[in-house]
Write a structure and sequence with these properties.
Arc Repressor Mutant, subunit A, two-stranded antiparallel sheet, SH3 type barrels, alpha+beta, transcription regulation, CBASS_pafABC_assoc_protein, 9 helices, elongated, DeoR faimly transcriptional regulator, six-stranded mixed beta sheet, 43% helix, HTH_11, transcription
């Protein structure tokens, strides 16, 4: 992610930036920044490095990342996806991806956003979901390790096998297996603890099992 942030930062800069300034900006060593710049060059990004007292780093001003990667329809579709994402996900909002797109083509991006805000109102949940909160992080670890978890839901303590997250009109949910398949609203889960019990049998996916499970919403 730092490489992408570095590209956008250099594109936004109106003048050369020193390696030391970049290191301070991204909270890494100057050696790490130099390695990152080398990687960008290998990837075809035209990084210009000037030596001497008035030296610094910049990206060739004739280089526009969007034109090299995206067609107009691709750009519009991606911006729509980001607009929807920022309105439903705290994680996407905090990543400021739309602001990064503005740094590439501010006029076009601002015009598209204005049209979206006027014509595409988002009113799905009372609050955005945060896929990086501690509950979701622990669930993700358990899914990676195929482990059971103990969760607190209200006054209940349940042992479940987490299968997947499901985004529904009620909000972000956990699809899981106890003695039966269950769908639990993430906001109802107050704590998660991974245990040592694992599961290696076949499971029925959410899409194959719609409406055939217990719901705690």
């Amino acid at each position: 992610m730092r490489l992408l942030d570095l590209v956008f930062y250099l594109l936004k800069s109106n003048s050369k930036v020193t390696v030391k300034e970049l290191a301070e900006r991204f909270n890494v060593s100057t050696k790490t920044i130099r390695r990152d710049l080398d990687k960008l060059s290998v990837l075809g990004i035209p990084v210009l490095i000037y030596r001497g007292p008035s030296g610094g780093v910049e990206i060739d001003k004739n280089y526009i990342i969007a034109k090299h990667i995206l067609r107009r329809s691709d750009y519009d579709s991606l911006l729509l996806a980001l607009y929807i994402g920022e309105n439903i996900s705290e994680t996407i909002s905090e990543s400021l991806l739309i602001d990064k797109f503005k740094s590439v083509d501010r006029e076009r991006c601002s015009k598209l956003l204005k049209n979206l805000e006027q014509r595409f109102v988002m009113d799905l949940f009372e609050e955005k979901f945060d896929s990086k909160n501690i509950v979701c992080k622990e669930i993700n670890k358990a899914i990676d390790n195929k482990s059971f978890i103990n969760i607190e839901v209200g006054s209940e303590n349940l042992e479940v096998y987490p299968i997947s997250f499901v985004l529904r009109k009620e909000g972000l949910c956990l699809y899981c297996l106890n003695e039966e398949y269950m769908l639990i609203l993430i906001n109802k889960i107050s704590s998660v603890r991974i245990n040592n019990k694992s599961y290696d049998k076949n499971i029925i996916s959410y899409n194959e099992n719609k409406e055939k499970f217990k719901q705690i919403l």
